[in-house]
Structures are given as C-alpha cells and as structure tokens.
Amino acid sequence: MIRLEIDKQQIDDLISTIKATDAEALKALRSTIRKMGQWLRTRAGRSIRAETGMNNKILGRRFRALKFKTKPDGGIGGVWIGLNPVDLGLLSPVQGMGGVAAGPMGKGRAYEHAFMGKRPGEITAKFKGGVFRRTSKKRLPIERLGYDIDDEGRKALESDVMELNEFENQFFRVFERELKWRTQTSK
Questions:
Q1: C-alpha pair distances (Å), 40 with each of 22, 50, 96
Q2: Measured distance CA(101)–CA(60) in Å, rounded
Q3: What is the model's pTM?
Q4: How confident is the model over 92-101, as a mean pLDDT?
C-alpha cells in the first residue's frame, strides 16, 4: 500500500484564511478527498495503460475509488488498483501448433503447450474462451494462464503517479476551490 499524507497544519491555515465553519470544512474535505481519489484513479490508469500497452476495456475494471471515511484526526480516501494477472482470453489469443500467442500490442508472448478454451456460446461454457495449460500429463487438472502486469504496474505507479508535490498542489487547489464554494453557498 502506498500512502500519501497531507499536512494538517496547511489545511487548518487554509480554513482559517477563508473563515469557514467546521461543517463547511468537513464537507469540503470529503468532497476534495473524493475528487482526489478520482484524480489518482485517472492518473494511475493512464500511467499503467502507457506502461503495459493494454486498452481501457481491459484495465478499466481494475481501478476503484474507495469511499471517504471520517476519523477524529481527519479523513481517509483511496483508490484500489488491481495488479493481478490479466486473463489471456482478453488479449486476442491465437492458437498455434506449439501453443498460444497472446499479449498486449507489441508485447505478445508465446505460451508453449497452452490451448484455448471454447468461446462463450459454443458447446461448453466451462472454459469461456480462456487460455489454459495442463498441470500434469493427464487431461485434468488444468490452470488458467494470465498476463502478469504487477511489475509494470508498480513501476508505472512509482514513477508517474506518486509524485507527492504534484499531488499536494492538486489537493490544495481543489480544497481551496471547494472551501470557497461551500462558504459562498452557505451565506
């Protein structure tokens, strides 16, 4: 888990400068944390898509903004990012003589002794178009193969998304805007 923390003193200074009430400040903080979660989600998605070469249809379901939680000393919000392997059935697999070739654009890999399951709607829906490999010499058991994005995803997150200065600047820009809007509408 990667943590980004904002200095509470700077938040208190901004609240006192704008002369907002505690209720307005809490509402503005909740809204800001929610918006920053969405901002992080967008930045992470762009960065991981650029690093892996996969499209939004495949990676879009792997980003979830978490709900805001209030604590006595502030609030917590976040983004869940799924870096588990991507099913090869989503990456346009091609069955060859020696196995299956699949992967994102320009980064395809060959998986020896692999085979493709039937597509949905065919005789059996058990395999649902995935790519599989036998784990023994017998017919069963089999394992579903995936394209690992963990290393590429972590590299993209650490290099592009987690720049603290940019996050802090965006946070205070959004928080100030939200706080001013809340104080104007309550009058």
A1: 26, 15, 40
A2: 23
A3: 0.76
A4: 88
